[in-house]
Amino acid sequence: MAKKIINEPSRTLMEYRLLPGYTTDETSIDQISLETTLAWTPEGEQKFKLNIPVVSAAMQSVSGVEMGIELARLGGLAFIFCSQTIENEAAMIRDIKSYKAGFVDPFYVHPDMLIGDVFEISKSKGFNTFPVVDVNHKLLGILTKNDYSGTHHAQLKVSERMIPRDQLVVGVNISDIKEANKLLRESHQSVLPIVNEDDRLKNLVFRKDIRNHMNYPMELLDDRKRLLTGAAVNTHDYKERVPALEEAGADILTVDSSDGFSVYQKRTLEWITAHYPHLPVIGGNIITGKGFRFLVDCGARAVKVGMGGGSICITQEQKGTGRGLASAIIDVVNERNRYFEETGKYIPVVADGGIVDSKDITIALALGADYVMMGRYFARMEESPTEKIQLNNRIMKPYWGEGSARAREWKSVRYYQMKFVEGVEGFVQYAGKLRDNLPETLSKIKASMSSCGVTNIREFHENAELEIVSALSIREGKVHDIYMPNDSSDYKSDKY
Asked: 184 Cβ partners below 8 Å, 6+ apart?
């Protein structure tokens, strides 16, 4: 006979509804904060926070460079997938980190170089502003796109077209981006060079970055004002992969595994914690309190909860292992709270898989999750790394799981040792740009929290009241008993 048999059914997120609380002026939608802890660190929670409680899954069809950039600019975080070579994953991390940096590490040129050579560099690098330095790295001037033509000035030297140092506004030993931006605003320049006391070049700050920040006030930045990014690792080549990802600038790692309660994850977490203690790692996936305790004892700084609930995941069908996400969150959160009482360490819980729409995000947060990880939601967006196709008069994007045959074509994916697949391949309906969809989702979450009378996610954990609903109650809560002609209603759902 089995060691343990639970005769109560596990619950899914769709089986719960929130009971409203008292909404006040202080809990109006515009007063609600969605900021949440990304990972526990010894330095404190302020170092690793999300401005919105959503991250994208480490999947080939979800989290590429464009998604990593745009989601971080909107306040969330993307996890770059590890089902690729170490070199490719590290390159993707570098692309995100270099996209928008308050203090940019400059690519410089020398005064005796020909403009034609600089023009070729510009075409290959994708930018056209270059600081000019001497052999001692002292600033001599700036060469911008307005100062040269690749055709007409090709045979001239950089020194003949650059703006010389004595005509530039320059910041000296500035480390505060606000101070740099103020100095740049008062100048007529598009870029501000930053030098040390010996006039050696340190960084550049661009005017366009100031405008970008105004358009993206929630953007998630590191202490050097670069976009935050995450990266996935597996339990096989982590000793080679982690150093490369850390060097590329990854801010946080997640172990990509369908079952995190294993000796393989233990070895991975303990090795990373011992060799890179400054680099937080999210462990998972698990679905029990015992699994949570195991992962945090191994060094996990956050824990992913969920098994077999994703729209393209068939782990439960193939192996019979899994649990309704709501039941998993409740069990794990109870253990997380006990761990917090014992140690004072607050370990964030990540709801991963089984999120169908914005209501499910809200329920997961109310049950105690600190943020959610989603795949299908982001796979529909313009920024996901797949191409749009026309299918049955609809614009679609391909979507496949990391346990699918397609993902397993790469030799070192997490499932390479298996003789069967744990995911499928299909299509999702194209939804447009992320910035045109995500704000509506976040507004729905805020509206739910406002109705419950809370102002932030911690209060949501403490004060939310939920109730299990019957199948008939679920039907009652949907549109029913009316005729709705196609496209004639303002009603909109985000579950495609």
From this structure: 169, 191, 192, 205, 207, 210
How many Å apart are CA 97 and CA 449, to the nearest integer?
Answer: 33
* Strands 163-164, 139-143: pairing kind: antiparallel
**What is the Cα–Cα distance from 191 to 130, expressed in whole angstroms?**
10
Secondary structure element (H or E) that encloses residue 74, with its range: none
Three-class DSSP category at 367: helix
CA distances from 101 to 69, 157, 190, 205, 246 (A): 11, 29, 15, 8, 17
Contact criterion met (CB below 8 Å) for 82 and 241:
yes
Q: 91 CB contacts (<8 Å, ≥6 apart)?
A: 248
DSSP state of 455: S
Four-point Cα dihedral 408, 412, 413, 414, nearest 10: 130
The widest CA-to-CA distance across the chain, in whole angstroms, is 86
Pairing, β 36-37 against β 49-50: antiparallel
Hey, what are 306's tokens?
């969920």
Q: Enumerate the active-site residues.
A: 313, 414
Q: What 3-state class would DSSP assign to 482? A: coil
Question: Model-level pTM?
Answer: 0.81
- DSSP letter for 434, please: G
* Beta strands 465-468; 139-143: pairing state: unpaired
**Amino acid, res. 478:** K
| Element holding 243 (H helix, E strand) | helix 238-248
Query: What tokens does 111 get?
Result: 């005064």
**CA–CA gap between residue 39 and residue 347 (Å, rounded):** 7
DSSP strands (E only) in 406-477 = 425-429, 465-468
d(CA 48, CA 41): 8
DSSP state of 14: G
Full pLDDT tens readout for the chain, 496 residues: 787 778 788 898 999 999 999 999 999 999 999 999 999 988 765 578 999 999 999 999 999 999 999 999 999 999 999 999 999 999 999 999 988 667 777 889 999 999 999 999 888 777 889 999 999 999 999 999 888 888 889 899 999 999 999 999 999 998 877 788 889 888 888 899 999 999 999 988 888 776 676 778 899 999 887 899 999 999 999 999 999 999 999 999 999 998 899 999 999 999 999 999 999 999 989 999 999 999 999 999 999 999 865 555 656 556 666 788 999 999 999 999 999 999 999 999 999 988 988 999 999 999 999 999 999 999 999 999 999 999 888 999 988 876 555 545 655 444 444 555 565 577 889 999 999 999 999 999 999 999 999 999 999 999 999 999 988 777 777 776 777 776 544 445 554 4
Overall residue count recorded for the chain in this entry:
496
- The pair phi, psi for residue 130, each rounded to 5°, is -135, 125
Q: Give the rounded distance of the alpha carbon of 389 from its chain centre.
A: 25
> Cβ(35)–Cβ(349) under 8 Å?
no
How far is it, in rounded angstroms, from Cα 454 to Cα 420? 46
